[in-house]
Amino acid sequence: MSVDEGSRIPFPDLFSLRGKTAIVMGATTGLGPEMTLAIAEAGADVVAILSSWDPSPGQLEESIQKSGREFSVFHSEVSDSADLRRCFHDIWGAGVEPDILLNCSILNRRGPIENMKDEDIDLVLLVNLKAAYVAAQEVGSRMIQRLRKGKIINFGSAAAHLAMTDVSVYAAAKAGVLQMTKAFSNEWAAKGIQVNNISPGYSTAASAISLSSQYPEMASYITNRTPAGRLGTPADFRGVVVFLCSAASDFVTGSSIFVDGGLMAR
User: Fold this and answer.
1) Which parts of the chain fold into alpha helices (H)?
2) What's the sign of the alpha-carbon dihedral 183, 188, 190, 196?
3) Domains and CATH numbers, the chain
4) Which of 5, 41, 126, 174 could pair covalently with 160 via S-S, beta carbons 3.0-4.6 A apart?
5) Is the dihedral of CA 59, 60, 61, 62 positive or negative?
6) In 3D, which of 106, 219, 215 has the Cα closest to residue 170?
7) CA distance linking residue 228 with residue 55, whole number of Å
8) What whole-number distance in Å separates Cα of residue 194 and Cα of residue 84?
9) Residue 145: Cβ within 10 Å count
10) How far is it, in rounded angstroms, from Cα 74 to Cα 4?
């Protein structure tokens, strides 16, 4: 068996993001900080889009700058698609040329189905589904216009697959993200843009606190159902996000990767 040395990327460079620019929605929330720092440590400069509910960059910005990468921030209420498009217009005007979009801005409103108010339904759908669509549309269109190959990583949830209680709107939004990922991949794979999805299990400190304090029976159910026997941590996502952002995943598109300790396999 021969090796095509002309097209083969040396293994040390296979996961490198040197020279790449990543736009990250939700960089400071939930899983965002660990994943954003991971892609910066792999070599990418970071452009963060922050909404009013996102924490300030603080330590994340300092850590990225210590890694030798650039970090810049733009602000948008991502629930307002017109404002989000305005934000991308500003980003392009600043000369940013994207190679990666990390689409991980999330927001949830819990409650029984019969108690969900219109404003909460709208907000959850707008942040988790429409904003993800608009961001992917804006970044992918820019890549196509500039003849750039690239990576778009969306975020689903175990809630899109498991019939959890009190998360009906969030579950519907995240299920939409899964199909959105496939649809975008179908149209853009031939253009050199890979669109994939990461589906976390219960993997943030906030999830653990919320489950333990508000839904102790569900916390026990999730832990017992997970073969790994624990909730996940943000650090569990470092490797998979670098893989999906890098040349190592150039023939992976339209896929969903579960990072859930085996929860969906049981």
Assistant:
1) 11-14, 32-41, 58-66, 81-93, 118-125, 131-145, 168-188, 205-214, 216-225, 238-245
2) negative
3) 14-204+234-260 (3.40.50.720)
4) 174
5) positive
6) 106
7) 30
8) 22
9) 9
10) 42
DSSP for residue 9: P
Prediction pTM value: 0.92
Long-range interactions of 209-212: CB distance < 8 A, separation 24+: 210/110
Look at residue 231 and give its three-state secondary structure.
coil
Would you state the pLDDT for residue 1? 43
Contacts of 172 (CB under 8 A, 6+ apart): 125
Q: What are the catalytic residues?
A: 170
| Per-residue b or e along 230-266, where b marks 16 or more CB atoms closer than 10 Å to that residue's CB | ebbebebbbebbbbbbbebbeeebbebbbbbbebbee
Q: What is the mean pLDDT of each run of 10 residues along the chain (266 residues)?
A: 66 94 95 96 98 93 96 97 98 98 92 95 97 98 97 93 86 96 98 96 59 65 84 92 98 96 88
Q: Which amino acid is at 183?
A: A
